[in-house]
Amino acid sequence: MTKTEQQEPRPRELIIGTLLTKSAMKQDVYRATHELLGWIKEALGDIAADLSKEVSTKDPRLVFGFTDKGECACELQVAGDTLLFHMHTNVFRLDQSHSLWRSSYLVDDELRGYFGVVNIYNFLTDSFKYNRERDLGYLVARILLNKEHHFMVQGKRQMGFLYNDLADNVMDRERLKEVLYSLINYILEFDLLAPPYDQVNQVTVSEMNELNANMKLTTGKRLGFRFQADGDEPH
Questions:
Q1: Do residues 154 and 20 touch, judged by C-beta distance below 8 A?
Q2: Distance in angstroms (rounded) separating the CA atoms of residues 81 and 66
Q3: How far apart are CA 40 and CA 84, in angstroms?
Q4: pLDDT per position as a tens digit, 57-88
Q5: d(CA 15, CA 164)
Q6: Which run of H or E residues covers position 79?
Q7: pLDDT by residue (tens digit) across 142-201?
Q8: Torsions phi, psi of 135, nearest 5?
Q9: Residue 30: which of 120, 101, 91, 109 has the closest Cα?
């Protein structure tokens, strides 16, 4: 056996080393992301109460509400819009082509490039009120959080550049509320667009019966934002 062969770690030692570094890090990221979701729930409850006090008292038609949807999800109603927050239970490595891999922050420690993810979807409130199961919701942003509680927000327009400085963005309750208010402002800027006439100029008897019974013609706000479908990448 050569000296080089003697110095090479055995598979058992490699497994132990990986478990104590990468696997342990993923547990840290999951715990931090789960804690973040708890902060999100607290913040959304406060935001709903604040907006209701300031707005609903002046116009009772504008309704705000927060709903805890269980261990991994929650919901905020903002008048005619509903935001669904969903925490993924797995930890993800940032795509290798991302420019952040060339930053000193990730070059110094590549384990900082693993993230827990909270996805945020926008639906029309009426989609749930009238049980329109075919209505569309859109992924408007996602919060990525690493082992050091550094975060970035991926999205389009202002949501894609307001919170993209991973090295300097550290998540705390105050910063989180800033992100959530920015998100609400973002979705309120987009209006429901009527579909092209030629797409809805024919309807079957079955569809009309469904419409009369459940108002199920497909509806959705066109935000121009779907991570999988859009040709241009989110920031």
A1: no
A2: 12
A3: 11
A4: 999 999 999 999 999 999 999 999 999 999 99
A5: 34
A6: none
A7: 999 999 999 999 987 788 889 999 999 999 999 999 999 999 999 998 766 666 777 667
A8: -65, 155
A9: 91
